[in-house]
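Please go through the protein record below and explain what the tokens say about the fold. Record follows.
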Amino acid sequence: MKKLFFIVAAACLLTATSCVNNGKKSETSQEQPTAALSVNEAKYVEDILKDAEKNVDKEVVLKGFITHTCKHSGRRCFVMGKDQKTSVRVEAKGNIGGFNRELIGSEVIIKGILRENRLTKEYIDQAEEELKEKQGKAEGNGETCDAEMNNIQSMREWMKTNNKDYYSIYYIDGTEYEVAE
């Protein structure tokens, strides 16, 4: 379970500023697609992430609750699982023009392709150095820096435990969605 928390924490850390769209509003439609998705196929976030390594670049059907939508562009959202601890980022692709802010709190079913972003050891080393510089200059909130440093340490521990030279962050390129009834 810790692994999933750290994946989510790292995803939030790395995408915190990604909602900015140079101050421009998205010109894409944010209407909900009308395709009927199968509730029977849908899996909660934690169930999809449990087997994520085997399902990268494959189609998945996700079920969960939207906890955040990008207010600038609507091109991404975060979906929380039934355990209310695990979430995954969903990018608006395919038939999805965007995610309206009104969806926050709604249970949705999203079809899409599971993707992986691998953070290399070198990338993590660089992030740690930048964080140490930031701490040295007393920029930002001390609690935030401590949390980020803990995330970096957790990534290193995961890599060592799993004998990997990278840390995986999983997300979904969503192609269709509907609000669950």
Remarks:
- The chain has five helices and six strands.
- The two ends are 29 Å apart (CA to CA).
- The longest strand covers residues 107-120.
